[in-house]
């Protein structure tokens, strides 16, 4: 006798940043929906990504400011201390509220069934979750990713942390060695330095955040060094080894000590999609060389009954891109909107302090594309709001196209840049020339009010 199959209009696998909203919208439109989650509701962003890191970045900022309070004329008795248990408790409380919110939201949806377990395809439109078999005409994958654990000599003998286990720390590691000098690594490095750890970043490349323009990397390196973070760049051949106390990392750098001793090791060398254990071959779903699910512009996979949303499709690595994937898929299905992921502009932030707000093309990309462009740049030390706040690290840099006068991209590295960058983004979406953007009156004193001023000093890109 064949096993019973539970039939749905739609199955949604994973409750990251696209799945829950999609489930709600489909259920609201009258569809019978199954939602499958194998772990904590809300996925990476809520449980071990954006939400907890930004909660901890806020604690680290408070610690940093407390150390500088005398500069502002504020006197506290004694030097500030960080109670990591309280930092963690604050972070846990914020996370718990979000994750349980997503779970109760999903459980309360009309005509929806929540399955807790690992989903795996057993046919083109059929998945197995534990002992249950589910079938639907439409299946949506929002399975996200996990930290990449590289093949690194010695790693099997040394305990290491990733962004998952960093969330459990309720103490300040005496010396944290971070392998990987990119977005995730830098956020943890600066926050733990501010909590009181000695911090060393080992990066294989010649500079941090190599995807960014060189001036961005250099400024970030400068302010991290100024806080006492040790940078070991050009660490071409990284190995790890257990020591009597803690561990050591072999760097094989061009200069400096050949081994760096540390108490704790954080791996922040990238992420891999959760697609290797989904049984994709049973559903005829193609992946690329790195395991990302191949999709068309409307996020449909090689199986026309299946869509892939969020980090697992490799078309974005952010909460806002995953959420935008949901909007595209839902609008296309329910309103025949013809939306495409290729219509969105690149936009993201790096949450160091000061943060980096990035939109559109970088200087490097503009040059690679051979676009005739102008650049305007202004140090944050010449932004009144930054001076008043005592936060003058960084700069504002904007690129425009010579002929069309359209804004091509910007790298705003400075206090409030993760917010102020949005006014340029809106101008890019509206496709207005920068000369029109300059006419908009802005609030004083803000970082945003200086953006038109940056555009007054445009010069050809060297
Ligand atoms: C440390 C860190 C900080 C970050 N900070 C930011 C930030 O500040 N801003 C930003 O925009 N982005 C940030 N990101 C990236 C962001 O977290 C992700 O881009 C975002 O979570 C989107 O992921 P997703 O929706 O694709 O999937 P995820 O959030 O990863 O969710 C996938 C879900 O699917 C479930 N799942 C996987 N496989 C199965 C299966 N077979 N069966 C059932 N369930 C399954 C998982 O358990 C998980 O719950 C950060 C990431 C990290 C690691």
Q: How would you describe what is shown here?
A:
The protein has 462 residues and is α/β, with parallel strands linked by helices. Helix content is 31%, strand content 23%. The chain is built from 14 helices and 22 strands. Strands 1, 2, 3, 4, 5, 6 and 16 form a seven-stranded mixed β-sheet that branches. Strands 17-18-21-20-19-22 form a six-stranded antiparallel β-sheet. Strands 10-9-8-14 form a four-stranded parallel β-sheet. The longest helix has 24 residues, at 84-107. The mean pLDDT is 96. It binds flavin-adenine dinucleotide. Residues 13-18, 36-39, 43-45, 49-50, 53-54, 118-119, 142-145, 163, 184, 274, 278, 310-312, 317-320, 322, 351 line the site of flavin-adenine dinucleotide.
Blueprint of the fold:
Layout: E1 6-13, H1 19-28, E2 33-37, H2 43-48, H3 50-68, H4 84-107, E3 112-116, E4 119-123, E5 126-129, E6 132-141, E7 145-147, H5 163-166, E8 175-179, H6 183-195, E9 198-202, H7 214-226, E10 230-232, E11 239-242, E12 247-250, E13 259-262, E14 264-267, E15 271-273, H8 280-283, E16 306-308, H9 319-335, E17 347-350, E18 356-360, H10 363-369, E19 373-379, H11 384-389, E20 395-401, E21 407-413, H12 417-430, H13 434-437, H14 451-454, E22 459-460
Parallel strand pairs: 1-2, 1-6, 2-3, 6-16, 8-9, 8-14, 9-10
Antiparallel strand pairs: 4-5, 5-6, 7-15, 11-12, 12-13, 17-18, 18-21, 19-20, 19-22, 20-21
Bound molecules: flavin-adenine dinucleotide.
């Amino acid at each position: 006798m064949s096993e019973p199959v539970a039939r749905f209009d739609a199955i949604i696998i994973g409750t990251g940043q696209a799945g829950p909203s999609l489930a709600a919208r489909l259920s609201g439109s009258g569809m019978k929906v199954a939602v499958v989650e194998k772990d904590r509701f809300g996925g990476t962003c809520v449980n071990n990504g954006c939400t907890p890191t930004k909660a901890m970045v806020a604690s680290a900022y408070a610690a940093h400011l407390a150390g500088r309070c005398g500069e502002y004329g504020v006197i506290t008795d004694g030097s500030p201390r960080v109670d990591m248990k309280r930092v963690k408790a604050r972070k846990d409380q914020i996370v718990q509220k979000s994750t349980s919110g997503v779970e109760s939201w999903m459980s309360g949806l009309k005509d929806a069934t929540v399955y807790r377990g690992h989903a795996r395809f057993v046919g083109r439109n059929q998945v197995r979750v534990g002992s249950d078999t589910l079938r639907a005409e439409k299946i949506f994958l929002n399975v996200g990713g996990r930290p990449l654990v590289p093949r690194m000599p010695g790693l099997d003998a040394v305990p290491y942390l990733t962004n998952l286990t960093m969330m459990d720390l309720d103490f300040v590691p005496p010396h944290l060695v971070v392998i990987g000098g990119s977005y995730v690594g830098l956020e943890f490095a600066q926050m733990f330095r501010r909590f009181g750890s000695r911090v060393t970043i080992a990066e294989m490349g010649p500079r941090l955040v190599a995807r960014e323009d060189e001036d961005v990397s250099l400024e970030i390196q400068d302010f991290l060094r100024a806080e006492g973070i040790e940078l070991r760049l050009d660490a071409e051949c990284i190995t790890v080894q257990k020591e009597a106390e803690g561990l050591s990392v072999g760097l094989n750098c061009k200069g400096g000590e050949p081994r760096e001793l540390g108490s704790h090791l954080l791996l922040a060398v990238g992420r891999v999609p959760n697609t290797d254990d989904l049984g994709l071959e049973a559903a005829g779903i193609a992946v690329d060389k790195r395991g990302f699910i191949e999709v068309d512009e409307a996020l449909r996979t090689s199986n026309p009954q299946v869509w892939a949303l969020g980090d697992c499709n490799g078309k974005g690595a952010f909460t806002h891109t995953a959420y935008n994937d949901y909007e595209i898929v839902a609008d296309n299905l329910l309103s025949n909107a013809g939306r495409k992921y290729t219509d969105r502009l690149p936009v993201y932030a790096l949450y160091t302090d000061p943060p980096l707000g990035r939109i559109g093309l970088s200087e490097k990309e503009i040059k690679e594309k051979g676009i005739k462009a102008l650049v305007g740049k202004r140090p944050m030390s010449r932004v009144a709001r930054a001076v008043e706040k005592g936060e003058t690290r960084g700069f504002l840099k904007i690129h425009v196209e010579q002929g069309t006068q359209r804004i091509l991209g910007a790298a705003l590295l400075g206090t409030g840049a993760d917010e102020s960058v949005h006014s340029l983004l809106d101008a890019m979406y509206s496709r207005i020339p920068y000369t029109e953007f300059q006419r908009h009156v802005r609030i004083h004193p803000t970082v945003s009010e200086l953006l038109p001023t940056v555009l007054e000093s445009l010069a050809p890109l060297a």
